[in-house]
User: What shape does this take?
Amino acid sequence: MVTTKTDSNIKKAEVVDLTFGYTEKNVLNKISMPIYQNKVTALIGPSGCGKTTLLRCFNRMHDLYGEVRYNGEIKLYPDDINILARDIDPIEVRMKIGMVFQKPNPFPKSIYENISYGLKVRGVKKKSYIDDKVEDSLKKAGLWNEVSDRLHSSATSLSGGQQQRLCIARALATEPDLLLLDEPTSALDPISTAHIEELVTELKKSVTLLMVTHNLHQAARTADYTAFMYLGDLVEFGESSQIFTNPKEQKTENYITGRFG
Amino acid sequence: MDSKLATTFSKPQSIKRRVRELKELVIRIILFICAASSVLITFGVVWTLLKEAFPFFMEVSVKNFLTDKEWTPLFENPQYGIFNLICGTFLTTAIALSVAIPLGTITAVFLSEYMSNRYREILKPILELLAAVPTVVYGYFALLFVTPLLQKIYPDLSSFNALSAGLVMGVMIIPYVSSLSEDAMRAVPVHLREGSLALGASNLQTSFKVIIPSAFSGIASAYVLGISRALGETMVVAIAAGLQPKISLNPLESTQTLTAYIVQVSQGDLPHGSIGYKTIYVAGVVLLFFTLIFNLIGLRIRSKMEIKFK
Ligand SMILES: Nc1ncnc2c1ncn2[C@@H]1O[C@H](COP(=O)(O)OP(=O)(O)O)[C@@H](O)[C@H]1O
Ligand SMILES: [Mg+2]
Assistant: This one.
C-alpha cells in the first residue's frame, strides 16, 4: 500500500492492521489508514470489496450478529482508545460514532421524535434543550426550512432525499465524533444526491466524515481523502486529488479509468 | 426455419379458443364457490342465531333484558338481566388479558430480540404447546390446583371463582398473543433495528421504542385474537368460575359467563321453543356481538396505524 504523506492534519481515528472475517475467510486484510479530523474520507472500490464491512467495524455493528473476532485496532483520538477492544462497550462506541445507512431508515414516528431519539436514549429530559437540538440539527442537515411547520407529522411521509437528510440530522443531534455514511445517495435521485453532497461538504466544518460510495465522481467531488479497496485489501490511500489524477498503483488506475469493477 | 412455437391469432369462433375460455370460466366458478363458502357459512351461523333469538324478544321486553337485576330465566319468576352474564364474561376476560397481554408481549420481545435463531426454534413450539392442551384440562387445573393455592392466600376465596379461571385462561392465551406479536416484531425491517442501535440505543430501548411501535398493528391483531379467545372460552370458566350469574366485579366470588351459561343450559333437556331454549341463542348473539365489536376495533387500530406509518 502507498500512503501519501500529509502532516498538517489532525488524526481523528486510525485503523491499524485491521483484519476481519464473517467466517474463516478474511473479508478485510490488514487494513491501515488514518481518518483526519474535519475532513471527508471516501471509501471506494468494486462491489463486495469490503467497504461496508470496514465501515461497520467503526461502530461495532458486527457485534450484533454474534461473537466476532476483530484483529487489529481502530484507534479513536484524542481519547486514544482502541474501540475494537473487548472491554470497550459497543453501545458507548455507538454513542460517539454515528451512522447513516444506504437506504433511508427513519423510524415510523414523527420528525421531531426521530431527531430527539438519540437524545432520549442518552437520558436527556430537558424539553427546551431537545427542542433547540432538533432545530439545530435540522438546520445543519438543510431540512429545517422544509419541515419546520410539520415537525410532528410522520417522518415516513417525507421524500426519499428528505428522509436521508432526516437520518443525517438524527445522527448529528447526538453530536458524534465521527459520522459514517454507507452509500448515502445510492437510493436517491440526482437532485437529492446533489443536496446530500453539498451537505457532506458543509458538515465537515463540525464533524469528521467517513463515506462509502461507489460513485467515483461523488468521491472526487466531496472527499478530501480517498481510500481504494480491492478484494479486502486497501490498495491505496491518499488525497482525493492525487488518487483521481495521479494514482500510484496500477489497480487504482484501472479502477478509476473504468477498466474493471 | 419453421418454428413450432410460432403463434397465430385465432378467430373468436375457433374451437380452440372456445375451449380455453370455457376452462377459464369453470375454474373461476370453482374458485368463487370456495371463497364464498366461508362467507356463506358465517352468514348461516349468524342467521340461525338471530332466527332463534328473535322470538325471545316476543316474550321478554328489551327493557327487562337490559335492566333486570338477575339472570334467572329458568326460575318460577324469571328475570332476564343479561348484564349478569356480560359481567362474568368481562370479568374473566379482563383477568385473563391482564395476564396474557403483558406476559405475551414480554415473551414476544424476548423471543424476537434476545433469542438466537437456534434457541427460538426450540422454545417457540414448546410455548405453542400451551395452546394445544385441551381446555378441559385447564379447567380442572384451575379448579383443583390454582384455586386451592390461592385459598392459602385468601382463605375466603370461594371454590368457584373468577380469579383462578381468569388467571389460567390468561396462561392459556399467552401463546396466541406472543406468537403473533413475535411474528410482527420480527417482520420489522432490520434497518430500523440497526438504525436505533447505531444511535447508541440498547436492545431494551430498541425493543420498546422502535420495534413494538413499528409492529403495533400486528401486535394489536394479536391482542384482538387474545380477546376473542378469552370472550369465547368455555370449558375453563364453566368448570372453575361457577354457575352464579351476578352483577359484580369481585374476582374472589363465583360468577357465570355467557359461554358457561350456554353449556349449563344445553346440558339439561330443554324443550325446543321454550324460553330457556331461546336464551341459549340470545346469549350466543350477545357473545357474537362483543367479539365482532372487538374485531372491528382491532381493524380500526390497524388501518389507523397503517396510515400513520406507511
Ligand atoms: N453478514 C455477512 N456474512 C458473511 N459474509 C458477508 C456478510 N456481509 C458481507 N459479506 C461478504 O463480505 C464481503 C464484503 O462485503 P461488503 O462489505 O458488503 O462489500 P461492499 O460494501 O464493498 O460492497 C463480500 O464478499 C460479502 O459477500
Ligand atoms: Mg456496501
Notes: Residues 12 and 84 of chain B are 68 Å apart (CA to CA). Chain B has two domains: 2-53, 63-308. Chain B is about 75% helix and 0% strand.
